[in-house]
Amino acid sequence: MSDQRFSQHDIDHYHEHGFVVLENFLSQQELDDVYDDVERLLPGWRYAVDSTLLKPDGWQEPPERATNPRFPFPGAGLNGVTFHPELRRFAATVTGHDDLFCEQSDLTYKCQNHSRDADQNMHMDFGNHTLAYPSSNPKFWQTAYLIYYTDVTERLAPTAVCSWQHYKDEVHWPAIHSRQQRPDLYENEVLMTVPAGSVFAYSTRTYHRGTKFLGEGGRVAHFVTYAPKNCPWLGIVGWPTQGVRGSFQRWMEQSSLADRETIGFPPVGHEYWTEEMVRGVQARFPQLDMSPYRSTE
Ligand SMILES: [Fe+2]
User: How far is ligand 1, taken at its centre, from the CA of residue 162, in Å?
Assistant: First the structure.
């Protein structure tokens, strides 16, 4: 296979440590397509790669106003990364099945002195990704990705992560610890210093934290998370709330069957698809090819 972007060693590392770094995962073309989108969403973002430029307007907004741009995005770049076949194949490989749902796709940006520029406490992410507790059974694992679109050096707020090897067989609640409470998690942390286009893949059972900027600069990154399908207790968003956006209609009409299904659209052959439903969905999305849904009698 020519376009495999991870190895069995990466899978083994994930199973052993609860995370893996996939350096230079994206191609230059994929990154350029992403930058076209980022330019539209965050004009002035290039400060993140050249701190001699001006910071973009709005980067200092208070947290309640600084919302992350969320899927669907205006162009093809960020939407393409959301459904990147190799991100999906990675999640399918670590969990042992491909029955997956995309439960998150948020662009994130911060810079020195931004409201999100903080030395975070060590935490797991499951608090807002599940109503329950993250399962130890790989079949139910959520696979989270933080995809870095700009270089991350030690000065540019690298994510810190602590391997599973340092906290086996514990119940994690609360799943956040200060340095004073659990110095071992901090002493064993590893910093994700990576070039643009790299991916940090981690579990909702993995301790990690954001670190503070140590100098001028910024960071643009993308949170994408896959979860097993048909587990309504899992997920950070409900995609139907995006349904009123123009970008949703545009994406729907251009998306593949598989990508639509990955955000929960009724699959081909589902009993939902009556002639009336086909007509209704066609009316809502006039450019959508409904023929696969029609021919299920
Ligand atoms: Fe986190």
Answer: 12
Which stretches does DSSP call E strand in the chain?
19-22, 100-111, 122-123, 143-148, 159-162, 176-177, 189-191, 199-203, 207-210, 218-228
Residues 72 and 44 in one domain: yes
> Could you read off the pLDDT of 166-220 as tens digits, one per residue?
998 789 999 999 999 999 999 999 999 999 999 999 999 999 999 999 998 899 9
Q: Maximum Cα–Cα distance for the chain, whole Å? A: 63
CATH number, residue 228: 2.60.120.620
Residues 146 and 286 in one domain: no
The answer as to whether 16 is a domain residue is yes
Whether pTM > 0.85 for this model: the answer is yes
> Domain of 285?
268-297
Instruction: Tell me whether residue 3 is in a domain.
Output: no
CA of 123 to the centre of ligand 1 (A): 6
